[in-house]
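Continuing the series of single-chain predictions for the mutant panel. This is the parent chain; the variants come on the following pages.
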Amino acid sequence: MTTIVAANGSGATRALLLLCVRSSFIELRIFSSFFQYCAHYLRGDGSAASVNFRRLWFSNGLNCFGAQITSLALPLCAVLLLHATPEQMGVLVALQALPFALFGLPVGVLLDRRSKHPIMLFSESMSGLALASVAVAYWCGVLSMPWLYIVGFIIGTGFVVGGGAEQVFLTFLVGRDGLIDAQSKFAATESASRLIGPGLAGVLVQVLSAPVAILCTACGYLISVFNLRAMSVRDPRPAPSDKHALRDIADGLLFVWREPLLRALAWGAGIWHFLFYASMALTVLFATRDLGMSPGVLGMTQMLGGAGVLLSAFIVKPLTKRYGAGRTILIGLASTSLCFALTPTIPAALFGSAAASAVAYAILMFFFDCGVMLFFIPYLGLRQKVTPDPMLGRMTSTMRFLTVATAPLGALAAGWIAEHFGVRNGLACIAAGSILLTIAMVWGTPLRSVRT
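Parent structure:
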C-alpha cells in the first residue's frame, strides 16, 4: 500500500487509502463484537462450539458482511459511475449467476474427489483479488461495464466453488445432527452483515465512492483466507474414484431426480431464483431512479432487511419444531412472494413524502429477508439429511445447478422488459410469477407433510 502511494505521489490517493483501511478496520471491529455476542448467547453443543467451527463461522460471517457491501456497491458502480441501462444491469447480474450453469455440475465431482479446505482458500483468494481490481481500474481511469462483467463472473465462480465446498466442509465439521444448529448460527451472523453492511456500504459509497467500498470487501476476503489457514482440522481426501467424471455428474442428476423431496425442492428453488435474480437486476435502478434514493438512504433502508434475517435466526427452530421443516419453507416462500408483489406498488412519494416511500421499501425488505432465511435454512438442512455422505458433493452441486441455472435468464429477461416497458412493469411481472410459484409449491409438492 505504501508503494502505491509513493508511486503516484498524490495526497488525495493517500487519503483515500487511509480512509479505506480505517473503514475496513471499523467494519471488522463491529463484526467481531457481534460474533462474540453470538458465540456467548447462541452456544450449542460441543461440536458446534469448537475452535475450528468458530473459525469457519467467523470466515463465513466476514464474507457475508463483505458480500452485503459488494451487493450494493457493485451495482451502484454501474448505475452511478457508468450510467448503466436496465439491459446492462441485467447482463451484470446474469454473469454473476452464469457460473452456476457452467460449473455447477463439474464442481460436484471436484468436491467428491478433493479435500474441501484448499478449495475454500483458493475461491476466497480469487474473489478478493477480483474485487480489488475494481478500485485499481477506477483509479487508473479504465473502469467500464465489461470490467464489471468480468469481476461479477469471477465472484459468481468463487461462490459456486467455495460456497459448495463450505457446505460440505460444514457437514464434516459438525455432523448431520448439528447442521440445523450450526446453520442457525450462520444465519445469526448473516443478520449482522445485513444489519450493518448495507448502511456502511451506503455511507462508504456516498462519502468515498463505490470502488473504495468494494476495496474494503476485498480486504475482508483476504483476512478470511488467513483465518481459514489457521484451522487445525482438515477434511480427509476422499477415496479415489475409477468412474468417469461424466458418470459422476449423471449419478448426481439421477439421485436428485429419484428423491421426491429433492426433486420438489429443486424445481421450486429454481423458479424462485429466476425471480430473485430478475429482481436483483432492477432493484437498484428502481430505488435510485424511480424512488430517488441516494446511496446512503438505500443502504439504510436495506439495513432493516438485516433485522428480518436476525428475527429468522431466532424463530426458525421454534417454527420448524412446531410446524415442520416443509411448512416453514412454505411460510418463508409466502413472505417473499408478498414482498415481490408489493414492491412495484410503492410510489415515488407515498402520502406526498419520499421519506415515506423509503420507509415502505425498508419494511418490505424486512419481511423479504426474513422470508428468505425461513425458506433456505430448513431447505439446506432437509436436502443434506436425505443424502448419504458419498453423494453430498454431487448433490450439493447438482442442486445448485438445477436451482440457479435459470437465474441468468431471469436477470436478462427482467433487463429486457424494463428497458422496453419500464422498471415497474418488470417488477410487476416478477410479482405475478412469485404468486403462481407459491400456489404451486403449496399444492404441488409434498412439503406440507414434511416434518424433519
